[in-house]
Task: structure prediction
Amino acid sequence: MKLSLCITTYNRYELTIESFAQVLDDPRIDDIVIMDDCSKLKVRQMFYTWMENTNKGDGKVRFIEQAKNRGMSINKHDAISYAKNEWAIIFDSDNIIDPSYLDAFYKYVPFDLNALSPSEHFIFCPDFAKPNFDYRALAQGAPTHGLYNAKDAARCAIDSRFNCLLNTCNYIVNRDFYLSTYIYNKEHIASDTVWHNYNHLKAGGELAVVPGMQYYHRVHDGSGFMQNAEYNMSKSEEVRKLIQQL
Result:
């Protein structure tokens, strides 16, 4: 089973290239989508130059431009819609993925995913967004042992770690189930991930926190969530209350 890596970006050339540099040649990823949310012309030109100098003619990396800025939520949706594979990593351009992330996923999940039924209903979540967001206890703790359906999520919604996990993203999704459960909500600007996870759970989906599936998560003033942190926190809290009612 091969994975698509779908990276969303906006005016981040250097960070975007750094985000996937360590897995560029990993054979487990045979499709990399860079979904640009209408960056400045200079930034887009830098991407095209990189593509010309680096792409090996195999079409593994695709740079796709939005005609106008559509926001984080729709840009993620569109990135997943371009994935060639059934399973895709949705990844933020200011973070870093390395081969250990893939090692943990392939160790945890059977190659054909037949052990999970129905497998397409799962989102596979990292257990550590290093260095600040540690969810390792959620990957092993009773009674769920790392698997969370809607009722489990409702029960765990009081746990700050679980709520943070729901908004972290940088996880592996089934392309078709993700697209079928996606609901755009213009109020969720940078709380779009927790909003999607609510709809995923509501539709019968589950979350699996994968032991050892880790990546580096930057926290900086330029992150989408920090642009209006107070507003985004308030919208996340609204979704937490909805999850409690599942």
Summary: The longest strand covers residues 206-216. The beta strands are 3-9, 29-36, 61-65, 87-92, 122-130, 133-134, 147-148, 171-174, 206-216. The radius of gyration is 17 Å.
